[in-house]
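Hi, here's the filled form for the chain we discussed.

Project: internal
Contact: R.S.
Residues: 378
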Amino acid sequence: MNLPLWIYYVLGFPLLLGPLVTIHELGHYLVGRWFGVHAEAFSVGFGREIWGFTDKRGTRWKLSALPLGGYVRFKGDMNPASIPDPDAAEQASAEERAGSFHHAALWKRALIVFAGPATNILLTLAIFAGFFTLYGKPVPGDAAEQLTVAEFAEISPARAAGIEVGDRIVAIEGERMEDFRDVQDSIMLYPGRTLDVTVERDGAERIFEVPVRSVEMEDRFGNVSKVGLIGIASGAASFDFEPQGPIAALGLAVDHSLGIVDMMVTGIGQIFTGERSVQELGGPVKIAKFSGEQLSLGAMAFINFAALISLNLAFINLLPIPALDGGHLAFYAAEAVRRKPVGPRGTEVAYRAGVALVLMLMVFVTINDLVSLPIFGR
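And the returned structure, exactly as it came back:
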C-alpha cells in the first residue's frame, strides 16, 4: 500500500506493542488463575483507564491511557509493579490470604512471575519456527566456495593483514565457519577490534590478525548503524532452502533465538565498555519508528520484527532489577536460600531503587530517541 510513512508509524506501534504486552501479561494471568490467585485488574497500558469492564470473577479488564506497557495486579499487590505491602501481608486474615499472590507458595509465585517472559519467548519461537516451516532452512549452495575469498574491497584490512584471493576462511576467533553468513555475523558486531582469522591456503591453515574497520551504514529509512567490515567478498552467494518438519523447525528457531540473545548481550556489553555509543540504545520512540518502517515493508517483515521485540521484552524483563520480573525472581531465590522472605526494609529500599532505575532508564532512552530524530538534525 502506497501510504505516507507517518501512517505506518501511527499504526505500527500499537499493532506491535499492544499484542506483545497483552500476551506477556496473559502469561502471568493464566498461570496465576491456574494456581488460584485472584487477579484484581488486567491493564493494557498505564495511567488513567480509557475503557474497561469487570468479569464475573471480579477482574477489571481495562485499556489505559499510556500505551507503554501493561500489568496484572493480583490480590495483595500494593501497586501494578507487584510490590508487596509487608504490613498488610502480616496482618491479613484467613479470608484475605485466600487467593492472595503474596501468600501463595514460593514456587507458585516464581512460576507466575516467570510466565510473562516465558510467553514472550514461546511467541518468538512459534514465529521463527513458522518461518522455517514455511520457507525451509537456508543452506549454502556451495559452502566451500562461499568461504573462499574472491576479491577485496578498495579498503581491505584483510588484504593488508596478508590474506589473499583464493584463501578459504575456516575459523574466526577459533570458531569454525559454516558459510559466509557466519563470517559476516562473526565480524559485523566487532568494529574496531582485531580478530584472529584462520584461513586454509595450499592445504595448510594460517592465522592472520585482522583489524576490523568501523563503518556507519545507512538503510533505506535513514537509520544509521555501526558495523564491522574486513573488506572481502565471497566466491558464491547462493542459498538453497531445505524443507523442515515442525520439530526440526522448532530446533532451528531455538538456535536462531539463542544467536539473537548472544548479539544482544554482546551489544550491551560493548556499550558498557565504551566500544559502542549509548546513542545506540533505543526506547519507545525508536520502537514506534522501526515498527512503522517494518510494517511498510509488509506483513512478514513486521511479524519478524514482532518476534525480535518479543524476545527483547523477555530478555529485559528477566534482568535482576527490582520491579521487573527478574527482580522478583531474584527475591524469591533469596527467599528460597534464606528459608524466609527478605526483610521489609530491604525489600522496600530495593524496590524503590529498582523503580527509580527503570524510570531513569526510560527517560534517558526516550530523550536519546528524540534527539536522534531528523527534526533535531540527524
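Let me know if anything looks off before we file it.
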